[in-house]
Specification:
mainly alpha; 6 helices; elongated
């Protein structure tokens, strides 16, 4: 499938049609074609300019003031936070048919007419499965968090010219 996307991308390059990645922001004016026209649908050209502030040095305060309302570009691939781990993990666990079956057995065993075993004994398999899978998910998410932290703190080189 990846090879197909590569071939399609290369074919578009050869035909002169690009996939929308050619946004042009020169100070002299707008480009000849807008990104919408490159795909065949005309769009209005935005005549506004953007101001780019240096992030370090004498313009640090100006940068912080201008970028308050915008998101950063830090990578976050972890599923959970400390507050959302238990509710989201339980929600995902009970989407599995086996866990729903064990929950049904636990609830059914709390009805006095149908009670086959002691109430607590029927809860043991469900609790063991939920705890083991919860620990596994927590460890996986923590590894994702550490990797994201490592990637976000990488030192990079910026080439100008």
């Amino acid at each position: 499938m990846e090879g197909l996307h590569r071939v399609q991308h290369r074919w578009r390059q050869l035909l002169g049609r690009h996939s929308g990645g050619d946004w042009y922001s020169a100070p002299g004016g707008p480009p000849d074609k807008t990104p919408g026209e490159a795909h065949g649908t005309p769009q209005a050209v935005s005549r506004t300019r953007r101001t780019v502030f240096a992030r370090h040095g004498p313009h640090q305060q100006e940068y912080e003031t201008a970028s308050k309302g915008y998101m950063g570009n830090a990578i976050r691939s972890s599923k959970y936070t400390l507050l959302t781990f238990i509710p989201m993990n339980l929600f995902q666990q009970f989407h599995r048919a086996a866990n729903l079956y064990f929950l049904f057995l636990v609830l059914l065993n709390w009805v006095p007419v149908v009670e086959a075993f002691q109430k607590e004994i029927t809860m043991i398999p469900l609790l063991v499965v939920l705890i083991v899978i919860g620990i596994k998910d927590a460890l996986e998410d923590y590894r994702r968090y550490l990797f994201d932290k490592k990637v976000n703190n990488n030192v990079v080189r910026v080439f100008c010219g």
